[in-house]
Each structure stands twice: as structure tokens, then as C-alpha cells.
Design goal:
Layout lengths: L1 E11 L12 E11 L5 E8 L10 H6 L4 H7 L3 H12 L3 E5 L3 H12 L11 E3 H7 L1
Parallel strand pairs: 1-4, 4-5
Antiparallel strand pairs: 1-2, 2-3
Length: 135
């Protein structure tokens, strides 16, 4: 079994009580590293997503990224394409690892919004933040 450590960036709706088209956050970047059973790095994944719903960066998002909306529009791909490539890259036998639960929630929300095959429950993953705090 492999471990897929994922980190995503997303653009948020600046009005947290206002869900636009069923989304509170739109994924704009997926990054991941695949590790083997011994935690040796096997390969990396990186995908930029062209925004569809929140086309203007929320000001906090603008401060943490090294690119802007224009860069994503020029260099990004539709979420459906990036997500499909990511799923294929993960393979069949893997455990997803995240830092906190937010990435999982946002990923599921985006998958549902775009009508992709849902992630089936029970969805198992390692929350590395929780493990780190407990240790």
C-alpha cells in the first residue's frame, strides 16, 4: 500500500454564510506526494485548476499564493480533468494523508459540485495534524 500526502489550495467565498452554486470553496490547486510502505518518496503530482465559480481571489488567498487569477486562467485545467488525473495517479491501493480535515471536506464538495463519481464512505484517511498533536 502507498501513502498519498495531499495538499490543496482553494479560493473561498468571501461571504462564509453565502454558498454560491453549492460551493463554499473552489479548489484551484492539487499537490501530492506518493510514498511507499517505508515512507520513501515515489513520485509527485501537481495540477492547477482553472476557476469556474470564484474567478476573483479572495484577499487572504491572494496573500498566500505566488500566482494570480490570470495565471490560473492561462495555465489551469478544468477541475474534472485535474481530479480525474489525480485519481488515476493515486492508483488502487493507497491511503490518503492530509493535514487536518479541511482538504477532505473541500475535495468532496468539489467532486459533488462537478458531478464526478463520489468518494464512497466510509472514507478512510490519516489526519496527520491529529496524529502529530497526539504524539
Amino acid at each position: 500500500m502507498n501513502y498519498v500526502v495531499i495538499d490543496m489550495e482553494w479560493n473561498q467565498n468571501p461571504y462564509s454564510d453565502n454558498i454560491k452554486h453549492g460551493l463554499t470553496s473552489e479548489i484551484i490547486e492539487i499537490g501530492a506526494v506518493k510514498l511507499d510502505d517505508n515512507l520513501h518518496k515515489l513520485e509527485e503530482f501537481h495540477g492547477l485548476v482553472k476557476p469556474k465559480v470564484f474567478k476573483k481571489f479572495e484577499h487572504h488567498i491572494r496573500q498566500i499564493l505566488t500566482y494570480d487569477e490570470g495565471y490560473l486562467i492561462k495555465n489551469g485545467y478544468p477541475f474534472t480533468e485535474v481530479c480525474s488525473k489525480f485519481r488515476e495517479w493515486c492508483g488502487k491501493d493507497f491511503m490518503l494523508c492530509t493535514w487536518g480535515r479541511s482538504d477532505i471536506r473541500v475535495l468532496q464538495e468539489n467532486i459533488k459540485y462537478y458531478g464526478l463519481e463520489p468518494v464512497h464512505f466510509p472514507f478512510r484517511y490519516y489526519d496527520l495534524q491529529k496524529i502529530f498533536i497526539e504524539k
